Amino acid sequence: MRVNIYYGGRGLIDDPTLYVLEKITKVLDELRVTVERYNLYEDKRAITVLPKTLKEADGVILAASLEWFGFGGFLHQFLDACWLYGDKEKLSHMYMMPVVMATTYGEREAEYSLIRAWEMLGGVPGEGICAYVDNHVEFEMNAQFGLMIEKKTENFYRMISKKAVAFPNSSVAVKRNVLRTSNLSLTPQESEQLSEYVSNDNYVKKQKEDIEELASLFKGMLGEEKDEDDYVERLKSHFFPMEGLKAVFRIDLVEEKSSLIIDINDSKLNCYRGTVEQADVTAKVKTAVFEQVLDGTKTFQSAFMSGELSAQGNFKILRNFDTIFRFQNI
Fold first, then answer.
1. Mind listing the pLDDT tens digit for each residue in 298-309?
2. Residue 210, domain member (yes or no)
3. pLDDT tens digit string along 130-187?
4. Distance of CA 93 to the CA centre of its chain
5. In angstroms, rounded to a whole number, what is the distance separating the alpha carbons of residues 13 and 313?
6. How far apart (Å, rounded) are the C-alpha atoms in residues 299 and 306?
7. Strand, helix or coil for residue 77
8. Which of 14, 46, 28 has its CA nearest to residue 97?
């Protein structure tokens, strides 16, 4: 048996949805189920071709993190791709468990929207996991909540293994009589190929980035590229120690294909180009954006919040970056 998990959140370290998915995965592993998880935020360009990953699956888990309204754009985009390019015959026998963890109002509505969408696709929705989480630490430490998650997962496993039959619903009739996906009559293989073409159109942006990278490379060959140690010197000159802080930052500079390591131990700063086995915060950023941070026209935190900088690790330490390194105010 195989179950695919599609996670539509942003991957934040305090997202309660991640904890629930870890518990679900552990239970399924114990039941000898093959679990494959797809984090939609990691490769937005590939979402349109993800419906082909449903081919080998017996069931899916759609996991949403409700932060303000609805179940989020990533899952919406994935469900759109299933509607436009998915194998409807395969979807008609596919079981789905919705998982919605909310930090604001509306978790029930979001869960219902996922169920309705799956029914419109022709699939079979099962009983989901839905909760409002005010404090993620208290939620994760609650043993009763953990048992409830395990029970729900076991029920989903039984639903798939017993090939449970659902009562007919009006969504199927509406889909058959009213909704039309396209005037084209495509086979599943043709739909899959079409989805790949759509995805390839999105790689225009990636090609532009490659051109920028080549331009940067040629500048370096001509001696026009900025001395790489300039970053190190600027960080050292704007360093303000924080008492008791021990942290390691790894900043991956995309165009340069190199990493800047910032090792802080109380009042001592060790900054260099290279690699490190374990970092408290790993960030990926374009050189132009990092230049703005060093120039003081943008803070490290604002670059992260705007999506220009991606990061993972200890977010409490990440928030301290602008306190430790004080550049000219905006």
1. 899 888 888 899
2. no
3. 999 999 999 999 999 999 999 999 999 999 999 998 888 776 666 666 655 554 455 5
4. 27
5. 7
6. 11
7. helix
8. 28
